[in-house]
Amino acid sequence: MEEKELEQRLKSLEDLQRRILACNLCPRLREFDVRVGLSPPRRFRGQAYWSRPVPSLGDPLAPIVVVGMAPAPHGGNRTGRMFTGDQSGNNFFRALYEAGLANKPVSVSRDDGLRVCNVYITAVLHCAPPDNRPLPQEVANCSRYLEEEVRLLPNARVFVTLGRLAFDVLTRTLGVRCEFRHGLECGLPDGRWLIASYHPSPRNVNTGTLTIEGLRRVFERAKELAGVSGGCR
Questions:
Q1: pTM of the predicted protein model
Q2: What is the mean pLDDT of each run of 10 residues along the chain (233 residues)?
Q3: Is the C or the N end of the chain the one with fewer CB within 10 Å?
Q4: Gap between the terminal Cα atoms of the chain
C-alpha cells in the first residue's frame, strides 16, 4: 500500500470515530445511555458517566481486529472506553494480557495506563442497549460503521468475534458463510482469517461456557495467524 493511500485511510478512520461520537441514529439507545448515567447504582454514584457513543480502541495499524457486541450500561457507557469498568472487560483484558496483547490485566478507566499492542477493538454497537438486546434497526444503523472500519483498516489480517451477534454481523459484512462455534477458524477468500469466540460475559465465565484460558488460546491463535510474536509491556 502506498504511503499516500495509508495516510488517507488513517485520516478516514479518525473521521469515522468523530462521526461515531456524534451519532444520533438510534434515539432509544441515546436516551437509555443518558438515563442510566443519571440514576447509577450506589457503587457508581458521584461518577460522571460518558453516556455517549463509545469509540473504538487500539492501533488502527494492528493486524488483529476484535469485534464485540456493545458497551455495557455501567461499563463502557460509564467510562467511555470499550470493555472498561465491568466484569466482561476484566475477563477480556485478563485473557488479552495473558496472550501478550495488553500491558495490564484489568481495564478500569480511560486514564489507567492500559495499552494494547497489535490489536484494534471495536463493536457491532457503540451505544449500550437496554437489557443487552438491540433492535434489528439499531444493529443495522451501527453496523454501517463496522463495515467502514473493516474496509479502511489497512493491516487487518485476523478478525476475532466475541459472541454470536458479532459473528453474524461480521460474517455478513465480509460476505462469508461459516457456522458459529467457539474456536472456529474461518478462512476468507482474500487470505485473511476469522476466529469465533463466546463472549467473555460474567455468565459465560461463571458457568464455564468460556474460561479465561480458553479465550487466551483464541488470542494466541490469532497472533499465530497474524504473524505476531512477543508481548506487550
A1: 0.96
A2: 91 98 98 96 94 97 98 98 97 98 96 96 98 97 97 98 98 95 96 98 97 98 94 79
A3: N
A4: 29
Cell 495506563 sits at which residue? 113
Angle at alpha carbon of residue 156, lines to 152 and 162, rounded to 5°: 105
Q: What is the dihedral of CA 110, 31, 166, 139, to 10 degrees?
A: -140
Whether residue 232 lies inside any domain: the answer is no
Q: How many structural domains does the chain have?
A: 1
State which amino acid sits at residue 107. S
- Phi first, then psi: give them for residue 73, nearest 5 degrees: -55, -40
Task: Select from 54, 57, 65, 69 the least CA-distant residue to 163.
Answer: 69
The Cα–Cα gap between 98 and 104 comes to 9
For residue 231, tell me if it sits in a domain: no
- Domain range spanning residue 48? 3-226
> Residue 183 maps to which CATH number?
3.40.470.10
